[in-house]
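Q: What would this chain look like folded?
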Amino acid sequence: MPASAHGNRYPLLLYRHLISRYRLPSLALAVFLLGMAGLLFADIAPLPEESFGWLLAGGSASLFVWLMTSLAPSMAYVQPRADHVRVQTPIYRLKISYRRIHSTRPVEVGKVFFRGRLRGREMRSLQPFLGETALMLDLIGWPLAPILLRLFLHRYMLSPDQPGLVLMVTDWMALSKQLSSQIDRYQTDRQPKTRGPGIGASDILREGDEW
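A: My prediction, written as C-alpha cells:
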C-alpha cells in the first residue's frame, strides 16, 4: 500500500490531558520512594530493613508509571487510512471502515455532553474542551457492541445519543479535509468501471468465418 494512501496522525487531546495529570505525581513518588530506599541501603534512614524491598518495588512501579505517562500520549491518535480511519489509544486500536461513516461535522464539546449535567470529576476531565470544537463521525452503526467500546475507549469519545465518535484533536479542520478526501477516493475506487470498446468473442468468430 503506498505511503500516500495514509493521512497524517492527529493526537487525541483527551488522552493527552488525562494522562498528563499522572506524570508529575508518579515521578515525585518514584523519586521519594527510591530515595528512601537509597538512604535505607546506605544505613542512613531510620527504617526497618524489611521495608527496603517495599520501597524499591513501589519506586520502580512509580517510575514505570511515569515512563508510560510520558510515552502514552504519542500512542493516542486518529489517522485516515486508505480504506478506514484508525483510532489508536494507548491500549486499543479501532478501525472504522469508510462504509460505516455517514457524515462528519464539527460539534461543540460542551453541547454534546450537556455541560450543565457534568459534575465533579467529569467536569475536571472535560474542562479544557468544553468551549472547543471537535469532529464528530456520525456512524451508520457501532463497529463493536457499545458495552465493548466503553471498555476500550474513553466515554467522552462516544456520542451519548447516537452512533458516533467525538474526536478532540489538534486540528479538526485538517482532519475533516483529509477524511473527506480519503472517503471520496475510497468511493471512487469502488465504483464499477465501464469497459471500453473492444473485440468480443462473437466478433472473432465472424472474422474467422470471413477468412
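The helical segments are 13-20, 23-41, 51-71, 109-112, 120-126, 146-152, 172-189, 201-210.
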